[in-house]
Every structure is written in structure tokens, then in C-alpha cells.
UniProtKB/TrEMBL annotation:
Protein's name according to its UniProt entry: Rieske 2Fe-2S domain-containing protein
Residue stretches making up the Rieske domain: 4-99
Presence of keyword Iron-sulfur: yes
Keyword Metal-binding: yes
Gene3D superfamilies for this protein: Rieske [2Fe-2S] iron-sulphur domain
Organism per entry: Uliginosibacterium paludis
Length: 104
């Protein structure tokens, strides 16, 4: 599918989350403290609830609906374990963050 513009680079800083949309899909960009920006599908695997209204503390993202907790560095489920968020490749192109979405 190629690279798709996601958001302006200046909207994101370490320890912050930015809700985005790309080709109609909800994406959440997290920049965990001590890490690098990561882009995840913003739908909780529990009940498909949007994570764009979740609570981000710089290390974990908590689903506002049912309290599921995800590691911002990997998307791995911490509570409960055995689940995770789908991650997408991102890159900086000039002043924009771009995302590479699956072709599915």
C-alpha cells in the first residue's frame, strides 16, 4: 500500500499519545518514555473499543472501557497477558509522520 501521511511530527513528544486516522482506520501513536514513537491499531482487542480515549502514562496505555493495560514499547498486553495491539511501521518524512498500513 505504501506510506500514508499520519500526523505532523511536532504534535508528538516523549511521553505523549496522539490519536490519528489513516485511510479511515483509527491509529494511536505512542511515544513511550525512553523509547521511540510507535503506531498501533487503536481498537482494543477485548471488545473493539477505541483506545484513543485511553489513559497513557508514558509507559502503558489503559483502555478506558474495561481497564486492559498494554505496554507502550511493544503493544504487548500486560493485564491480561496473552493479547496485544497490532503495530504498524512508521517513519519521519520531512515534517510528517507516515504510516505503512497492511494491504488487507
Amino acid at each position: 500500500m505504501g506510506w500514508t501521511p499520519l500526523c505532523k511530527k511536532r504534535l508528538l513528544s516523549p511521553g505523549e499519545a496522539v490519536p490519528c486516522r489513516a485511510d479511515g482506520q483509527e491509529i494511536i501513536v505512542l511515544w513511550p518514555e525512553g523509547g521511540r514513537p510507535r503506531a498501533f491499531d487503536a481498537r482494543c482487542p477485548h471488545e473493539d473499543v477505541s483506545l484513543n480515549k485511553g489513559i497513557f502514562n508514558g509507559q502503558t496505555l489503559i483502555c478506558a472501557a474495561h481497564g486492559w493495560v498494554f505496554d507502550a514499547h511493544s503493544g504487548e498486553g500486560l493485564s491480561p497477558t496473552g493479547c496485544g495491539l497490532d503495530e504498524f511501521p512508521i517513519r519521519v518524512n520531512g515534517e510528517m509522520l507516515e504510516i505503512e498500513l497492511d494491504e488487507d
